[in-house]
Design a protein that fits this description.
It is globular and about 45 Å long. α1 runs antiparallel to α5. The strands form three sheets. Strands 1, 4, 6, 7, 9, 12 and 14 form a seven-stranded antiparallel beta sheet that branches. A five-stranded antiparallel beta sheet has the order 5-8-13-10-11. It has 278 residues and is α+β, with helices and mostly antiparallel strands. The chain has two domains: 38 residues; 227 residues, Sandwich (Jelly Rolls), CATH 2.60.120. The protein is built from five helices and 14 strands. Helix content is 22%, strand content 28%. This is PEP-CTERM sorting domain-containing protein. Keywords: Signal. It comes from Paraglaciecola mesophila.
């Protein structure tokens, strides 16, 4: 085999590997804005029906929404978790999704359907149930871990076409954003993306704690690259309070790693070349 042929093969393999690595590269992108929800909950993701109802079509497209309202439970008639409801302020509220919800302490996570001064304010235009964090000690971070690992492991029982999927989109309605609020997104224990109150307020020119302005009450969209495997997120707050609603996840089938596929093709080419040389 000539040196020219050898060099050509090496260059081709290197190019394939480089292309494979590039196709896997990328980072989460964050954007703002959704659509007006028709169920009275303010804003929701533009990728689902404005009613926030989980239908067969919604599921087939790989989207699920948590509204914290029993009226939008899926499947219809399924039970929900009311352990975070507030006595006298949570009629019709519950956590519907099959999630592992772990607050950092007692009383850190609550679900309610009204606003109370110095306790929590519903996101602008939201007249339904919403979730919020309350710090154990003001000025000290408290958090709520929301884990989709079990959901992802069992989503194929809801729709077989979604088996083996991972989350490549998450959206949520963030209410009266404060400088002491933040969200972090993880692949297991590895941080893959985050957004803080100061970042959002600077981006939209909002004011901390404003309960009515669209610049301080907005729908946040986060798109994750194929190289990322987001499966849990954390809501963090050190003040009163961190409010959120209409949490939407979008699923995507996990593609075969391109770099490994191209490596296999390259090695196969080299092996065939050696065979023909013999």
């Amino acid at each position: 085999m000539s040196n020219l042929v050898k060099k050509t093969k090496l260059v081709t393999l290197a190019a394939l590997l480089a292309f494979g690595a590039a196709s896997q590269a990328g980072a989460a992108t964050i954007s703002f804005g959704g659509q007006a929800a028709t169920d009275g909950s303010g804003q929701t993701s533009s990728r689902i029906d404005a009613s926030n109802q989980i239908t067969a079509a919604t599921v087939a497209n790989g989207y699920f929404v948590e509204t914290f309202d029993s009226a939008t439970v899926f499947p219809v008639g399924a039970g929900g978790d009311t352990s975070y409801n507030v006595a006298g302020a949570s009629d019709g509220c519950q956590i519907n999704s099959p999630l592992a919800v772990t607050p950092s302490g007692a009383g850190v996570l609550n679900v309610r359907n009204n606003s109370v001064p110095n306790v929590a304010a519903a996101p602008a235009g939201d007249n339904t149930c919403y979730a919020y964090t309350t710090p154990e000690n003001v000025g000290t971070d408290s958090s709520v871990d929301i884990d989709y690992t079990t959901f992802l492991a069992n989503v194929g029982t809801i729709d077989a076409s979604l088996a083996g999927s991972k989350i490549n989109y998450l959206g949520f309605y963030w209410g009266s954003v404060d400088t002491y609020n933040s969200f972090e997104f993880y692949d297991g224990a590895t941080l893959v993306a985050s957004i803080t109150g100061p970042q959002l307020l600077a981006q939209l020119n909002g004011s901390s704690g404003n309960q009515t302005s669209p610049a301080s009450n907005t729908y946040v969209n986060i798109d994750f690259s194929d190289a990322e495997a987001f499966d849990n997120f954390k809501v963090i707050s050190s003040g009163i309070a961190g409010e959120f609603d209409n949490v939407v996840v979008g699923l995507k089938q996990v593609p075969a790693p391109a770099n490994l596929a191209f490596l296999g093709l390259g090695l196969l080419g080299l092996a065939l070349g050696k065979r023909f040389k013999k």
